[in-house]
Amino acid sequence: MKKFVNDPKQFVPQMLRGIALANPDTLRYVPEYNLIMRADAPRQDKVSIIQGSGSGHEPAHVMTVGKGMLDGACPGDVFAAPPMDYVYESVKLLASDKGVLLLVNNYTGDKMAFEMAQEMSSADGIKVQTLFINDDVAVEDSTWTVGRRGVAGNFFVMKAVGAAAEAGADLDEVVRIGEKVNSVTRTIGIALTACTPPAKGSPLFDLGADEIEVGVGIHGEPGRRRAKLVSADEIVDEMLDAVVPDLPYTSGDSVALMINGLGGTPISELYLLFGIAHEKLAARGIAVRRSYVGEYCTSLDMAGASLTLVRLDPEIDALLDAPAEIAYRVF
Amino acid sequence: MKKFVNDPKQFVPQMLRGIALANPDTLRYVPEYNLIMRADAPRQDKVSIIQGSGSGHEPAHVMTVGKGMLDGACPGDVFAAPPMDYVYESVKLLASDKGVLLLVNNYTGDKMAFEMAQEMSSADGIKVQTLFINDDVAVEDSTWTVGRRGVAGNFFVMKAVGAAAEAGADLDEVVRIGEKVNSVTRTIGIALTACTPPAKGSPLFDLGADEIEVGVGIHGEPGRRRAKLVSADEIVDEMLDAVVPDLPYTSGDSVALMINGLGGTPISELYLLFGIAHEKLAARGIAVRRSYVGEYCTSLDMAGASLTLVRLDPEIDALLDAPAEIAYRVF
Amino acid sequence: MAADVGDVEFVVRVIAQSAVENEIYFGDLDSVVGDGDFGYSLARGFEIVLEQWDTLDRSDAGTFLQKVAMIIAGRIGGTSGPLWGTAFLRAATVAKSRDVIDGPAAVEMLSAAIEGIKARGGAEVGEKTLLDALVPVRDDVATLVAQGLRAQAVLDSAAVTARAAAEATTVMQARRGRASYTGERSIGSPDAGAVAVAVLIERIADQWSEREAARAG
Amino acid sequence: MAADVGDVEFVVRVIAQSAVENEIYFGDLDSVVGDGDFGYSLARGFEIVLEQWDTLDRSDAGTFLQKVAMIIAGRIGGTSGPLWGTAFLRAATVAKSRDVIDGPAAVEMLSAAIEGIKARGGAEVGEKTLLDALVPVRDDVATLVAQGLRAQAVLDSAAVTARAAAEATTVMQARRGRASYTGERSIGSPDAGAVAVAVLIERIADQWSEREAARAG
Ligand SMILES: Nc1ncnc2c1ncn2[C@@H]1O[C@H](COP(=O)(O)OP(=O)(O)O)[C@@H](O)[C@H]1O
Ligand SMILES: Nc1ncnc2c1ncn2[C@@H]1O[C@H](COP(=O)(O)OP(=O)(O)O)[C@@H](O)[C@H]1O
Ligand SMILES: [Mg+2]
Ligand SMILES: [Mg+2]
Ligand SMILES: [Mg+2]
Ligand SMILES: [Mg+2]
């Protein structure tokens, strides 16, 4: 395993400590619960927003805490939902008079931990609601499945609810906005390599030198099918064919287009994909009005990318446009 | 080779097109010269700043063009200095009454192309100066060597001269600032894997599963020596021992600390390194006042990281603090 | 109404130790079509159980199990924390209502655990989860206990049943948990949770017989 | 004062074609201690020379060489563009001053190219660059031309000299270019630029003899 790491069991805490040290004025780290929170939270005049999930998806979600986005993120270990105690204690620490919104990426583990924590904190008299994010079109969605996963599209939900909460919206309104953004957001992921969790020390699956996984999530599990590596043009076609008809996005739509790196793919390739997708969307009559190119929700060191579309309207556009200050930044 | 790419010869142009499409209001792409330039450049009331280098280092430098940083970046192919014509034509397109500053990362090829272009554009009556960046402590610096390389520390020089130029400083003043920042900036890089140039299709060197390269640059060439992979703590010690005594940085100094990913290393590991370095610097009496964690100057998909220190004073601090708007961004 | 902690404590300790010892193996099982963290999650949680072992309230079996359940539910991450925690919690509730933890009590505790897992995770038998090992084990144990067999005989049979049931998950398609995302590709390898159940029951049967031998010797 | 373009055109074409054909090989040479782009840079530049071949002004050898040099200097990236461009430019200047490109003219052109490379890149013989092939070749050619040998004999000897000189760079430590960053680790493999010079001269000698044979036949 080739990683910068000491004891793999300390991987998450040591990363969190780094985040806190890099943002001493704006963030606070509560080691007992793996919690990264805004230094000024909770504010009683604002809905508190908390997201938890496994680690290994950075910058999601621990690096998207800050003004205009999350109030707190309580990750579990790599690819493991946070223990219920962590969520419960985080909710208590961030409880606000205006209520608490829990964002959950609709995985069984996350769902159960957050549901249990919501039950317990509601019993304590805290006003809590939970919103599930499920933008991944690679997963079949039917009554007998666990439903779709939340993947890179979660960034847009976080951004929109963060902006709304910052502007003083009440809990119901924040939930309405989150559900609305989630409902117009769709993602598909493609992996070029498997990823290596620090505690495991070897790749999670074997992929031939000319093979790719189509429809991967963000936890290193294999995708829907294995395919031959093809050109960037063909990959973008495959991604768009999966995403566009799903909502569907139609001619005349304005969209945000995100090309998200899964961790091991350089931004040069992501911008290359972006340019191709932009032009192919234009050919379908879909106008890219907002662009997001980089890493937003990763799967450790996996090489690969996901493509996300969000159908824009003036309300969503304004929320995505609002300023935010988070640990994931350039300057 | 596992990359998102069509024809490798079109790798750079297609990436540049992506950058332009993602930033239609602020950037312009001039395909003839691989030039990404500010849409509002040249402005005659402001020094124009141009940086060129090989491609493969993204976000450097094509994604750092914009208000408060570069006016233009004209990259060559992957790891190859731009052809002299590209530089010359870029200088002509961006010529300003206040002059043009060329930033060069002190590699033989870049140096020669920029020197020739400067000669030719000076002959055309354009006011041009060149500033060499050479922050890499891994390279011996003596009269019979080619001198140190410019690596990730170039970000700080770009940022500072960009801020100064934006504020209206004249060419000599911008040069003074660039030289000053360069003189207090030092970097060391460590690679965990080799990188794969798209046109070559295979890794540039072989590295054993438990080996690392110490003192790598950003062009995929091997480093100063090969070593065994050790813990993150020990790697940070090795990096600090190379960088701190070189300037030297001493007890009482305030610094900017950058942990730069070389392309294939996820930000989780970078923040882990950052936290460790922050604490080890504190133990040496050196206070980290500004933090930069992420990818700033990469070597394609190489796994690895570099550590950069900049000694701060109020002038440098203010220039690094000034706002800038570039293609490399989160929102 | 306060059953002695004896056998319960013994079984929990074997489970905790085995979970820690099998961290890598369980993780590898979960990486075939899952995300590889199953072993890690269990091991970290049961490590805490072992760390706090001496301080756990053992005034009666029910209370003891409840303390263990709280650690598991609260401190194990992933899907396993809530599921295993709920299972232990439900078993604790049964234990609290008993004067002695005998065969029939064990059957009832297993049934309560199964219902808890179903309620928490929404899964049914046949969806390729640990239920596909646990339910056959409970049925087997119920039959043998009703027939009046001794604990060792029941455990030995349960171990065989669990192993066979775990292996039978190989041909199933996962409909719950992360493995379900891979659709038909989940067919062809056994479920990590079901195999873990088999390993743990085999270990309990084994250790039980060693304890008996030591007591006899 | 306007030398016929004949032989010069022939030699340039062989160089250009060989550079394109050897893209991968030259790149591999450069990836041992360099950054692997040498073959790519040369190939892209000489491709442009070949593309524009029919439109290049060939009124005389000097003008023709100058046009080629402008493409190389202006359009080849990396270190090689400025170095090779300067070399061709200096050779062009010599050619312009000649009525005919004979042996002595060739020696003078080689010398001018070498001086150009030294001036542009600051390297000297022994620093593991293409100069370590070019300078022995120039010396050898100068001697044989002075002895009055025919072109083919001179070229055949130059090819042998170039190859030996290129191989001799293996034991040198790079002091210029990107390879110098690796310090002592640059020892043990030949310099990519020097090997390229050997390959190109071998090819010129080869093609020259084929052309003679064709003319004779
Ligand atoms: N909804 C469910 N109900 C019952 N058991 C489940 C369910 N989902 C998953 N499991 C069991 O949990 C195991 C995986 O646990 P773990 O790796 O901790 O979960 P995760 O999928 O969150 O990584 C599976 O092998 C399966 O036996
Ligand atoms: N300063 C120099 N003077 C002469 N030749 C040089 C110099 N630097 C490099 N070279 C030659 O150039 C070759 C590498 O060319 P190229 O790969 O294009 O350069 P880069 O190092 O910029 O990638 C080397 O093998 C060497 O022969
Ligand atoms: Mg998991
Ligand atoms: Mg190069
Ligand atoms: Mg798992
Ligand atoms: Mg090279």
Automatic annotation (TrEMBL), chains A, B:
So which domain of life are we looking at? Bacteria
Write the gene name.
dhaK
Q: Name one GO biological process term.
A: glycerol catabolic process
Q: Which PROSITE patterns match?
A: DHAK (PS51481)
Annotated organism of origin: Pengzhenrongella frigida
Fetch the Gene3D superfamilies from UniProt: Dihydroxyacetone kinase, domain 1, Dihydroxyacetone kinase, domain 2
Q: What is its EC number?
A: 2.7.1.121
Q: Name one GO molecular function term.
A: ATP binding
Which residues belong to any copy of the DhaK domain? Answer: 7-329
Q: Which PANTHER family match?
A: TRIOKINASE/FMN CYCLASE, TRIOKINASE_FMN CYCLASE
Query: What is this protein called in UniProt?
Result: Dihydroxyacetone kinase subunit DhaK
Q: Does the keyword Lipid metabolism apply?
A: no
Gene Ontology annotations for the cellular component aspect, listed alphabetically: cytosol
SUPFAM superfamilies named among the record's database cross-references: DAK1/DegV-like
Q: What is the lineage of its organism?
A: Bacteria, Bacillati, Actinomycetota, Actinomycetes, Micrococcales
Q: Which UniProt keywords apply?
A: ATP-binding, Kinase, Nucleotide-binding, Transferase
UniProtKB/TrEMBL annotation, chains C, D:
Protein encoded by which gene: dhaL
**Mind telling me which Gene3D superfamilies this protein's record contains?**
1.25.40.340
> Mind telling me which SUPFAM superfamilies this protein's record contains?
DhaL-like (SSF101473)
Which Gene Ontology cellular component annotation is one that this UniProt entry carries? cytosol
**GO molecular-function annotation terms?**
glycerone kinase activity
Q: Which UniProt keywords apply?
A: Kinase, Transferase
Could you tell me which SMART domains the record lists for this protein?
Dak2
Which organism does this sequence originate in?
Pengzhenrongella frigida
- The protein here is known as Dihydroxyacetone kinase subunit L
Q: Which PANTHER family match?
A: TRIOKINASE/FMN CYCLASE, TRIOKINASE_FMN CYCLASE
One GO biological process term is: glycerol catabolic process
